[in-house]
Amino acid sequence: MSNRREFLKLSGAALGAVAFGPSASAFFAGSGPSAMHPVGLQLFTFFTTIDADVAGTLRKIAGIGYREIESAFSMKGGYYGMKPKEFAKLVKDTGMSWQSHHVLGAPFKMPANAKPMLDAKGQPIKFPPMRNLKENMQQLVDEAAEGGVPYLVCANIPTGTGAEIQSAISVLNKTGEACKKAGITLCYHNHTEEFVKMDAGTAYELFLKDLHPDIKMELDLCWATKAGVDPVALFKAHPGRFPLWHVKDLDAKREGPAPVGTGVVDFTRIFANAGVAGMKHFFVEHDMPKDAFASITTSYKNLTKILPA
After folding, report:
1. Contact 287, 301 (CB under 8 A)
2. In Å, how far are 35, 46, 47, 138 from 119, measured between CA atoms?
């Protein structure tokens, strides 16, 4: 069952920390028999299928070896059709822990030229109302607190103009205050558009400068790499600001996501700087894969080769 390893043994972690350098020691060090943080999964990977069998999907994910979950939007509404405490119990019953939840920053709008999203049967998806931080901030924070989730993540917010960026900063700072009162950490998750250069700088640069320091970042390694950004350079410029990562590869053509270890992202170098980043949790993700279970199985197996052992 080597492909289901959950943790590094202490001896392996010690050797790994030496091989990866001192910046990794804070992440790979541990006590007792467990030395490496469990591998997590972002459930958006199963966006078009999970609602048909939430419990069964979670059990299969746990069976592969994943031990932490980051939830996302559900077609059933709420938390995959459940209240926060119900979903937290279901995740716990599968042997996993619920660490983070994604929400939208503003009302959802499909891009003008975007193709309609299709469900598992190839039919256009009809989206139910989606709550967002601009309109439903306190409710979303309260629900995350009710479920015992340590991190609330803004998955997306408009950043196409200077005015949108300033509005986003205002929304995120207000949410950060509410999260702090609730004992939750707010993070921001990037795509590629946050790295588009504008007169005042990129949205990501402005976020790092103008968001309250208590607000952290969830760096999506795939999208940052596609945007031509070096994750390690970001970590070194803003140490400790990146407690969460999305661990997914960028395909060889540099067009879109791929299972970990099958593309161009240098995970070995990135994980070597986990301590600099302040990384606490990482979540494998693959947006709209043809076969989600095949993708996350490949990612898990390759992670056990990429991480020190």
Report:
1. no
2. 39, 11, 9, 31
Tally of CB atoms within 10 A around 230: 14
Say which residues have a Cβ less than 8 Å from residue 290's Cβ, sequence separation at least 6: none
Residues 27, 275: contact at Cβ < 8 Å?
yes
Q: Are strands 244-247 and 281-284 parallel, antiparallel or unpaired?
A: parallel
State the Cα angle at 305 between 39 and 216, rounded to 5°. 40
Tell me the C-alpha distance between 190 and 69, whole Å: 19
The three-state secondary structure class of 123 is coil
Contacts of 44 by beta carbon, 8 Å cutoff, 6+ apart = 72, 73, 102, 285, 287
Structure tokens at 87: 């979903």
**CA nearest to 153, candidates 172, 166, 178:** 172
* SS3 call for 244: strand
User: pLDDT per position in the chain (309 positions), as tens?
Assistant: 333 333 323 233 333 333 334 444 444 443 333 345 689 999 999 999 999 999 999 999 999 999 999 999 998 989 999 999 999 999 999 999 999 999 999 997 766 677 777 766 778 877 777 899 999 999 999 999 999 999 999 999 999 999 999 999 999 999 999 999 999 999 999 999 999 999 999 999 999 999 999 999 999 999 999 999 999 999 999 999 999 999 999 999 999 999 999 999 999 999 999 999 999 999 999 999 999 999 999 999 999 988 765
**Interstrand relation of 257-258 and 249-250 (parallel, antiparallel or unpaired):** antiparallel
What are the start-end ranges of the H helices in 255-308? 267-272, 274-277, 292-306
The answer for residues whose C-beta is within 8 angstroms of residue 258's C-beta and 6 or more apart is 222, 248, 249, 250, 251, 252, 286
